[in-house]
Hints:
By secondary structure, the protein is an all-alpha fold. It folds into 2 domains: 3-68; 88-138, no CATH class. The protein is built from 7 helices and no strands. The protein has helices at 3-14, 20-31, 36-51, 57-68, 88-100, 108-125, 144-147. The two termini are 34 Å apart. This is Transposase.
Amino acid sequence: xxxxxxxxxxxxxxxxxxxxxxxxxxxxxxxxxxxxxxxxxxxxxxxxxxxxxxxxxxxxxxxxxxxxxxxxxxxxxxxxxxxxxxxxxxxxxxxxxxxxxxxxxxxxxxxxxxxxxxxxxxxxxxxxxxxxxxxxxxxxxxxxxxxx
Length: 148
């Protein structure tokens, strides 16, 4: 799961809980763990702290079962150093594919035909043979002017 989903789901379920602001603040600190070992130790301390708060048992149990003990808990910084902790780019492409397919259910053959056309258009946009191609960048090209 990605970091954005962790926060979104917690807000949706517990935003009105009396301890939510402090709970989410601790989770933000937990997310900054730089290694699996640090995350495991910090998670243990996090659970110990919040399980001692009787009114937060439901919230900490949900968080522990869903986001800490899951095999897909890749939402903290140290899980895959150098890689994003969100899957926004993948979801963006998924949304584009759904829009291009008019969000309809297609037969497999129709779906593959549609995909072929979509990938062809996307590839053509990146061709240096066309005017104003959309060139893939390995590193962001950000300048000081972008921030001022």
